[in-house]
Amino acid sequence: MTATTKLNGIAAVNAAIARAMAQDPKVIVLGEDVADREGGGVVGTTRGLSTRFGDERVKSTPISEQAIIGAAIGAAIGGYKPVAEIMLMNFTTVAMDMIFNHAAKLRFMSGGQTSVPLTIHTLTGAGVSTAGQHADHLEAWFAHAAGIKVVAPSTPSDYFGLMLSCIDDPDPCLMIMSAMTLRTFEEVPNDLAPIPLGKARIVEEGGDVTIVAYSAMVLTARKATEALKAEGVSVELIDLRTVAPWDRETVLASVRKTGRAVIVHEALRNHGVGAEIAATIQEELFGALKAPIRRLGAPYSPVPFSKPLEAAYLVQPDDIVAAVRSVLG
Amino acid sequence: MTATTKLNGIAAVNAAIARAMAQDPKVIVLGEDVADREGGGVVGTTRGLSTRFGDERVKSTPISEQAIIGAAIGAAIGGYKPVAEIMLMNFTTVAMDMIFNHAAKLRFMSGGQTSVPLTIHTLTGAGVSTAGQHADHLEAWFAHAAGIKVVAPSTPSDYFGLMLSCIDDPDPCLMIMSAMTLRTFEEVPNDLAPIPLGKARIVEEGGDVTIVAYSAMVLTARKATEALKAEGVSVELIDLRTVAPWDRETVLASVRKTGRAVIVHEALRNHGVGAEIAATIQEELFGALKAPIRRLGAPYSPVPFSKPLEAAYLVQPDDIVAAVRSVLG
Amino acid sequence: MQQTPVSNRPLPGPEVQRDIYRRMVRIERNDEAIRRAIKLGRLQMPYYSARGQEVIPSAVSVNLNQDDTICTIYRGIHDMVAKGMPLRPLWAEIAGRIDGTCKGKGGPMHLTHPESGVMVTTGIVGSSMPIANGLAWAAKLDGSQRVAIAYFGDGASNIGAFHESLNLASVWKLPVIFVCQNNRFAEHTRYEVGTSVDRIAKRAIGYGMPGVTVDGNDPVDMYAAAFEAVERARAGEGPTLIEALTFRFFGHVFGDDDKYMTKEEKAAAMERDPLPLFRARLIADGIATEGALADMETAIAAEVDDAMQFGLASPLPPIDELRRDVFATEIA
Amino acid sequence: MQQTPVSNRPLPGPEVQRDIYRRMVRIERNDEAIRRAIKLGRLQMPYYSARGQEVIPSAVSVNLNQDDTICTIYRGIHDMVAKGMPLRPLWAEIAGRIDGTCKGKGGPMHLTHPESGVMVTTGIVGSSMPIANGLAWAAKLDGSQRVAIAYFGDGASNIGAFHESLNLASVWKLPVIFVCQNNRFAEHTRYEVGTSVDRIAKRAIGYGMPGVTVDGNDPVDMYAAAFEAVERARAGEGPTLIEALTFRFFGHVFGDDDKYMTKEEKAAAMERDPLPLFRARLIADGIATEGALADMETAIAAEVDDAMQFGLASPLPPIDELRRDVFATEIA
Ligand SMILES: Cc1ncc(C[n+]2csc(CCOP(=O)(O)OP(=O)(O)O)c2C)c(N)n1
Ligand SMILES: Cc1ncc(C[n+]2csc(CCOP(=O)(O)OP(=O)(O)O)c2C)c(N)n1
Ligand SMILES: [Mg+2]
Ligand SMILES: [Mg+2]
């Protein structure tokens, strides 16, 4: 029996980075407040790492996101595997040139001579009263950029296993840590293998309808799935885990079986990754669908502060139940 | 008979800004090299404006895109209607915080107390050997951001009429100027009325298949349409003109009639605006479709330099013809 | 760095000094009430208390008119209160209610009140500065004498937007004042860990702009620096960078454990609490009597209490507010 | 600004001077050949000629080893050639061919050649600097003596990335050198229209970093500044900002009309063409003979010609190169 440790998402990411650093001296860490002198990260993602691996491998930075990602890119093409923290996803907007024009493109533009094995992790998500500039889900932007992978786990084990894969990957990866997914604890095997990028997880098997979700919306979808089960609806719930590249095979196989799909994400519904998934399903499974594919996501609005508005902004279990009912006709 | 002037896209935008400045003293212009001392814009979009309207209303800036958009936002909430040039769309990445976190959100976050009647225009597009960092089409990012409108004209008249509407609009608008669309000239009526935002234009009426395109891809789609006509295929070609919010009514009415849709854009196919349109059509017109909706766009790659790769990167008329044939079965 | 010799410095008269103190008390009482309400669970919000930094915006704001504008940050309620934002809509906003400045939609990090000149509150480090430039440009285009203030922290002086903003303000000679509230820390990062220069004011040299470092806990010093900067801006002579040294008493976000500094360091800084110090000085200098100050404080306490009651009693916004103010026209 | 007194300055010996000249000639002949090929329609590319700026990277590069790294910009072919990038793959790349450094996929604005230390070429103003920091960090982590150079223009000193990079380099004491090639213009914008300080080197003060302004057309001056900065970086003493004054002979992009400057101004600047000036000096100082220089020039002309022939004869890349190098694994 393998030993396990009870971890939440933050502790899981922390443990994964620590394991990678112990195994590979090329793994280095940077970001605002990441060293222990500064508290090991505002939420503790990097706690203990500078003490264990030294101040040269774990460096707190000024508030300079362009400089953070730039330094990470340079170190990466110089042979290192940097893990960079951008505190919140909205702050990637001040580093978008570095991420999009450089990290994602250098391998291609150099004809394969340089590579950027960089991992960026960043927190986001509504539901914790942080309002308009601290909670956006921008994964669709990165999915629409060639050369960068995006993971958005929903469980401690997935945070652990996907972080290992991101660090190990020879190309830039962005890990989205959703506030709502970081509270739950799970027993995670200490020797958990890396979880391959681009592979979805079937959370729940079922035959009537496929629900595709990721990040916090997996938790919401689980609640909906329970409610639907009670009504006798057999749901197949898929946690994408990796948003780009997403697991077409698993999703298409499921919808081929169920004939119905509901896609859920926290990001804006309009032009969200749900659009790509729906567009792909209709193209690949035309004629095999029993109902239109439904998409659920945030309304076309910035994230509001006031509690009832914030709740209405977020997809709720009932919204999913209603969407499933509508496709069941 | 109204007088007309022969204009290309650049001259049309220039004329529209000039008309707006003449009519409304609150319209002001800023950007790199925009004043006449600096040549009136690298491609001439703002040529003559500082001479005509003075150096205080038309200001060349340092190379500081955050400062450019920031100054534009401040002036906008201070009662002006700034028209800001960001030379190339890839450079919006250094100003994304200002555009996304601020320009797009200030009205909402202030509960309607402040507004940002800002117009940004920016050039982009492959086909002119500018390679990996000067030619991306990022409209899907902005479409996935609540609070900003995106136009992407394809003809001189549309550049003219849409620029007038953008400047006049009480909210932030982004105009994409595609390199490939700026070469053709057209006789534009001097008193052309503003073209409403959010309204598509039916370029060609037809009954067999709907092609939805915008920006440079309208030109490509026109060529395909000619070729298809020769084969006896009746194409309805829609130029979206406004990408966000896009004209659902016109597109859905057309596809309801034809039962088939092919969507084309220059941006990456994956997670492009074509995904949103396809996802919407399948949801709204389920059962009325005769074939799966096809999407054409750039392959998952940065823009390459080498000519044959650049040609392969861009959707060509033949690609559209083939997609149309495939939906015609 | 330009530094006016101390002897020539503009001094705040008695009335102005009392006005500064009044603003400080409003800030401090209001801050205390917010912290209490959070502790009691009556407010749910991330709170970035500016306790300890009261002098800075108070001494700046006595030099401003109502139509002068400010752009501030998440730690900015002191800046707004000093500028004259009424407390009732402020409380309604931080409680997420419909009578809030922003109908509850912006919340504490995005409080906005153009009527009192509070134009932007941002949660993004550095982003108050580029927008303040635009307000200053608008003031100039209007042919007005208005000035714009950008408030920000020491940590924000390391981000790109700072640089672009100061450079643009200088080449355009904008009537804008960059007020850096240097409270020694950026979240948990000590000044010198993130900042490569001993005095942020020195960075002004790189922009051909006057830069001064002042004791941001000393109302007289702070007043003088603000006075000169405002004069210069109104005279069309361009921007100024003011670095005001201070300390935040409650860490980065209310609830922090302050582990990243020593107890002694914190205690020493808190001994320089500007409120009791300035209060004693006003009395000692014969500028105000104990009785008058006590009356002022009582009145302010009542005002804060009223605002809190008002805010917490205001209704929550209806759900369709999500469709309003995204654009001028409601979303269908 | 720190400035070593002229008398104490490190001087390049005769061999080094000849080496600087050799690099300058390689740059100049190569530039001329590119311009000719564009005019003849044999190359299709936007070309940002660095004619006139040959001294800067040449005098820097004689202080560098092969494994020292550079990050440069669209106007950077002179920097690469000076660093030792072979001309054959350079030509194949700008012709978009499979034998190019980047298999034709990057093109002239993204030439890359790690073997000669050319790690990044960017088309985004300012973006060479943040990445050079990372290369310097890697050098430090490796325990090596390597240094990293970031080349950029005067206009780039006004963008946020400049500020963030210099600050980080300073607080981390990175072995990086920021070389600003101040050619008086940013596209069509004159230095003082966009830049708020009379000397960019002064901005170093704001980062607690040495900053020097040198005549970038004077090989001896430029050598001295680079020598000191490289020494300092290798000794672990941190970064330096060098502002090298120069002029670009062919405007922003090859084909420009230069309307934004006066004819006299341009003529005056071009009189200081560094190539003939340095050539004459080498001969006058007895460092090289006319004959030896002529031989060198002939050999370089042949090398450039060979490279051009090679590049233009190289095959175009196959279409499936679009699926390669997006990720390490080919796209399916
Ligand atoms: C661009 C960006 N990066 C990071 C953050 C997270 N953050 C919020 S406040 C803060 C510290 C700011 O320090 P300082 O500027 O000194 O202001 P203070 O909070 O001390 O008043 C950080 C890093 C942010 N809001 N924006
Ligand atoms: C972020 C960004 N903004 C604008 C541009 C367009 N642009 C390309 S070169 C240039 C001028 C740069 O001037 P300078 O830094 O002085 O370098 P030089 O070209 O003179 O060598 C500009 C504005 C760009 N490439 N990137
Ligand atoms: Mg601080
Ligand atoms: Mg220049």
Identify the notable features of this structure and list them briefly.
heterotetramer, A: 329 residues, alpha/beta, Rossmann fold, 12 helices, 14 strands, 36% helix, 21% strand, C: 332 residues, six-stranded parallel sheet, globular, binds thiamine diphosphate, binds magnesium ion
How does this model look, in words?
Chain A contains 12 helices and 14 strands. Chain A has 329 residues and is of the alpha/beta class. Chain A has 2 domains: 4-189, Thiamin diphosphate (ThDP)-binding fold, Pyr/PP domains (Rossmann fold, 3-Layer(aba) Sandwich); 201-328, Rossmann fold. In chain A, 71% of the residues are buried. Chain C is of the alpha/beta class and 332 residues long. Helix content of chain C is 42%, strand content 11%. Chain C has helices at residues 14-39, 55-61, 77-83, 87-94, 128-141, 160-171, 191-194, 219-234, 263-271, 274-284, 290-313, and strands spanning 69-73, 118-122, 148-153, 176-182, 185-186, 189-190, 211-215, 240-245. In chain C, the strands form 2 sheets. A 6-stranded parallel sheet of chain C has the order 2-1-3-4-8-7, sandwiched between helices. A two-stranded antiparallel ribbon of chain C has the order 5-6. The N and C termini of chain C lie far apart (55 Å). Classes of the chains: A alpha/beta (329), C alpha/beta (332). Chains B and C meet through helix 3, helix 4 and helix 5 of B and strand 2, helix 5 and helix 6 of C. Bound molecules: thiamine diphosphate (2 copies) and magnesium ion (2 copies). One thiamine diphosphate sits between chains D (75, 123-125, 152-156, 181, 183, 185-187, 252) and B (32, 63, 65, 87, 91, 94).
SSE topology:
The complex is a heterotetramer, with two copies of chain A (329 residues) and two copies of chain C (332 residues).
Chain A: E1 4-7, H1 9-23, E2 27-31, H2 49-53, E3 58-60, H3 65-77, E4 81-88, H4 96-103, H5 106-109, E5 119-124, H6 139-143, E6 149-151, H7 156-168, E7 173-178, E8 186-189, E9 201-204, E10 209-213, H8 216-230, E11 235-239, E12 242-244, H9 248-258, E13 261-268, H10 273-284, E14 294-298, H11 307-313, H12 317-328
Helix pairs in contact in A: 1-7, 3-4, 8-12, 9-10
Chain C: H1 14-39, H2 55-61, E1 69-73, H3 77-83, H4 87-94, E2 118-122, H5 128-141, E3 148-153, H6 160-171, E4 176-182, E5 185-186, E6 189-190, H7 191-194, E7 211-215, H8 219-234, E8 240-245, H9 263-271, H10 274-284, H11 290-313
Parallel strand pairs in C: 1-2, 1-3, 3-4, 4-8, 7-8
Antiparallel strand pairs in C: 5-6
Helix pairs in contact in C: 1-2, 1-3, 1-10, 1-11, 2-3, 2-8, 4-11
The structure holds thiamine diphosphate (2 copies) and magnesium ion (MG) (2 copies).
Domain Transketolase-like pyrimidine-binding (chains A, B): 7-184
EC number (chains A, B): 1.2.4.1
Keywords (chains A, B): Oxidoreductase, Pyruvate, Thiamine pyrophosphate
